[in-house]
Amino acid sequence: MTQQPQAKYRKDYKAPDFTITHLDLDFDLQASHTQVIAKSRVKQQVIGSDSMFLDGDGLSLKRVEINGEAWPHFEETPEGLVLTQLPTEFELLIETHIDPAANSSLEGLYLSDGAYCTQCEAEGFRRITYYLDRPDVLAKFTTKIAADKSAFPFLLSNGNKVGSGELESGRHWVQWEDPYAKPSYLFALVAGDFDRLADSFTTRSGRDVALEIFVDKGNLDRATHAMTSLKNSMKWDEDRFDLEYDLDIYMIVAVDFFNMGAMENKGLNVFNSKYVLANSDTATDTDYLGIEAVIGHEYFHNWTGNRVTCRDWFQLSLKEGLTVFRDQEFSSDLGSRAVNRIGNVRTMRGPQFAEDRSPMAHPIRPDKVIEMNNFYTLTVYEKGSEVIRMMHTLLGEVKFQKGIKLYFERHDGTAATCEDFVKAMEDASGIDLKQFRLWYSQSGTPVLDVTSVYDDESNTLTLRVKQHTPSTADQKDKQPLMIPFDVELYASDGNVIELQCNGEVVSNVLHVAESEQTFVFDNVGEQPVISMLREFSAPVTLHYAYSDEELAFLMVHARNEFARWDAGQMLLAKHIKANVIRVQAGEAVHIPEEVVDAFRGVLLSDQLDAALIAEVMQLPSENEIGGWFDVVDVDAINAVRGATKQHFANELADEFSAIYHSLKQMEYSIAHDAIGQRSLRNMCLAYLALTEQGDDIVSAHYTDSNNMTDTAAALAAANHAELASRAALMQAFSDKWQHDGLVMDKWFMLQGGNPAQGALDNVKAQMSHPAFSLKNPNRTRSLVGAFCNNNPVNFHAKDGAGYEFLSDILIQLNESNPQVASRLIDPLLKFKRFDQDRQALMRDQLERLALLDNLAKDLYEKINKALEV
Ligand code: TRP
Ligand code: ZN
Q1: Which CATH number, 3.40.1350.10, 2.60.40.1730, 3.10.290.10, 2.40.160.20, labels domain 1-193?
Q2: What is the rounded radius of gyration, in angstroms, for the C-alpha atoms of the chain?
Q3: Is 91 an active-site residue?
């Protein structure tokens, strides 16, 4: 490490001394020497200042001019360019040269698979030209692109096309103009040869918007679902949020080499092809739903992110938490609200809660950042969305929408803060959010300890709620939060007992605001069963000593589907936890018959829909189970989860088999009830794989399948049950699909997640599979990511080989793509959660990485935090 990377602090925010109001970009695209001419209109903001620092990274500077004259007063630093003796208002011209062909980081301008593409969020624009690369500098952009015409017939950028023409030696040019001022992170340029799917959308006020999706040649038939999802998004945002699209064209480009899911560049989204391409042969139902969600997410950013952007990167959750909330609502309005909520809650209770206990713990609005790319986290996105959702719960839809309206009235066209958003919600609703604001600054997962007392003389129920938030790596002391706590009471006949206080009906949403608080409900005629934290009304852990009977009761009688599912999860949690302790004491796994019966009841229920039954039957992941313990015992957890699954398979074999055979579908459709039925049928298959007929039924399922959902389910079942037929099925799949990396990702993921002994050797061998490449982030995440995250027993093998494998890979990725490296390292950071021997082995690898002399900022920040005592 030549120079220690410096941290930035939220408290140090300062508006810039100069701003840029217009930027005219001119690109001459050449693989290894692209010329970029940037002409800015610059204006002094703070009287007296006459110098300006422009961010820049890896640029070769050719020319600096001010008002048309060469400007000698500048100095290049490792981080950028200092200009001095500046006038108060001027035109700045900067010419830089860059090398897109050599750019493997996939940040800035890069050439991959024969197409040029940019990724500028968060701080990638500085790899294109020297600039005020910060989100509070909003400029109107024009972009002129020149390139070889036959190799790059499409030259795209933000806004509207305003000119084009031919050049010498087979080159051509196109010019774009974006009428909306924007920060540099929303800039995009794409040049290549694609197939184009074109459609249109007429907005509510009658404007026609051209919609264009660009995909690799030959993939046109795989873009239709993305187009449908885009039109649904545009309509939904008008209906639910009163927001209309604001340009004449909306373009999406799908690329195979992309660090994340997708990017909301104004008028020109760039997508990981995983979130665009789908047909029934290549994509699973989960893929279809993921495309709908991500297309929605990026489209919704046009208002929450682009029209109102972030003042500084510490405010990232302003756009991301809110936009995730919006995409979750979109998916819930179009599909099953309960299934969507269950998925989101699984993400919170598993990976997000784990992040809170890791060295990277941070509030949804971080205070300190070294590498911004490290803060595109589950906390900022998913917990950020939960914080918005709590406001929605406290205000209700009507007042929440009034708040949204006021937010846009106040901040449209500007760069705002999280505080601005909360203030708009507060002012529009009249509801005091003073204490609520702590959710933005306090990290960690609060714990609610609840006890209840029923008094049959006074007919009162007393709920006593204690809250505390355990210390996190970043923050020792915690204060009580304002927690919306949604409860409901049930009588033994299953009827709801109205919540009353002093004879008056009160809301189901209790306001827990102190470290200890008591709620007394009257007119409770009998000892009730209490449904708590309904809809996961706050991102907290709930502790309450439920009996098995109460949970089994709620699984049947709770009025909403989420609460039924959650009761099932709590019942499983109780017994899985007890069994882990049993196994650690050398005893056998034991699951009471009543527990199995409760799940049998769900399987046989004619009231629940298929998708929900499938969710109920899905055991919590090994990672989520690990979160229930102070020291994670991967082997005991694996043994107990496996034995529980096996026990259910044995005891419920007849039910699984009956449902499996009754649900055979003939034609593939992605209608929501068809998806639900496939999901239940494939859940049954996963259990049946563990019975005597496992090999036969799974092989037949594979052979009979007419869609990727069923095909992938057969492979997954064979993989997890370690069936004899596994090898042949995997081989057949690879033979059929090895030309298609996106499809092969499913296969690599199974290789990575293979629980069999010796799986690591196989993972290493698959790195030379013709479809694999460490240069491609999707492939890397599928194989290596799955091994490190979804294969605890093998990744945490006692000899440390799993840890060594990961750090060998990180050493390579540190050079080629630090952003991908930094996402992959997460499981290694959590070493303190394991036993002493594993801790030592994991720490060895972190120390080995810390010694690299060209350690990227991304890894530096995480490793340093992890190794700090
Ligand atoms: N803003 C993007 C989103 O929410 C995510 C994003 C941030 C991103 N940085 C990125 C995507 C880098 C790709 C590469 O969807
Ligand atoms: Zn986003």
Answers
A1: 2.60.40.1730
A2: 28
A3: no
Beta strand 262-263 pairing with 268-272: antiparallel
The β-bridge partners of 636 are none
- Tell me the pLDDT tens digit for each residue of 332-391: 999 999 999 999 999 999 999 999 999 999 999 999 999 999 999 999 999 999 999 999
Question: CA angle, corner 43, sides to 37 and 49, nearest 5?
Answer: 115
CATH architecture designation of domain 561-868: Alpha Horseshoe (1.25)
Measured N-to-C along each axis, helices 741-753 and 759-766 cross at an angle, to the nearest 10 degrees, of: 160
Q: Tell me the one-letter amino acid at 283.
A: A
Kindly list the protein residues whose Cβ atom lies closer than 6 A to any atom of ligand 1: 119, 121-122, 259-264, 297-298, 320, 376
Q: Is the peptide bond before 727 cis (omega within 30 degrees of 0)?
A: no
In which region does residue 170 sit, left (phi positive, over 0), alpha (psi from -120 to 50) or beta (all else)? left
Which are the contacts of 256, defined by CB distance < 8 A and separation ≥ 6?
A: 112, 113, 216, 273, 741, 742, 776, 778
Beta strands in 507-649 (DSSP E): 509-512, 516-521, 529-532, 541-543
Helix (H) or strand (E) holding 441: helix 438-441
Sign of CA dihedral 29, 32, 35, 36: positive
Which of the following is catalytic: 264, 298, 320, 382?
298
- Which of 125, 260, 858, when mutated, tests ligand 1's pocket best, judged by the most ligand atoms within 8 Å of its CB? 260
For ligand 1, atom 5: residue with the closest CA? 263
- Sign for the CA dihedral angle at 491, 494, 495, 498 comes to positive
Cα(186) to centroid of ligand 2, in Å?
A: 12
User: Which residue ranges does the chain devote to CATH 1.25.50.10?
Assistant: 561-868
Query: Taking Cα atoms as reference points, which of 776, 674, 717 lies closest to residue 113?
Result: 776
Sequence ranges of the chain with CATH classification 2.60.40.1840: 450-546
Rounded mean pLDDT of 666-694?
96
- Taking only the tens place, the pLDDT of each residue in 560-596 is 999 999 999 999 999 999 999 999 999 999 999 999 9
For residue 276, count other CB atoms closer than 10 A to its CB: 28
Supply 546's token pair.
């439920």
Give pLDDT, residue 4: 86
Residue 1's pLDDT is 45
Domain(s) labelled CATH 2.60.40.1730 in the chain stretch across 1-193
Rounded Cα–Cα distance for residues 146 and 556 (Å): 65
- The pTM for the full model equals 0.99
Q: Are 515 and 508 in contact (CB under 8 A)?
A: no
Ligand 1: atom nearest CA of 819 is 12
Provide the sign of the torsion angle of the four alpha carbons 20, 26, 29, 30, taken in this order: negative
The CATH number of 450-546, from 2.60.40.1840, 2.60.40.420, 2.40.160.60, 3.90.230.10, is: 2.60.40.1840
pLDDT tens figures, 295-316: 999 999 999 999 999 999 999 9
| Of residues 426, 439, 390, the one with CA closest to residue 537 | 390
Q: Atom 10 in ligand 1: which residue has the minimum CA distance? A: 121
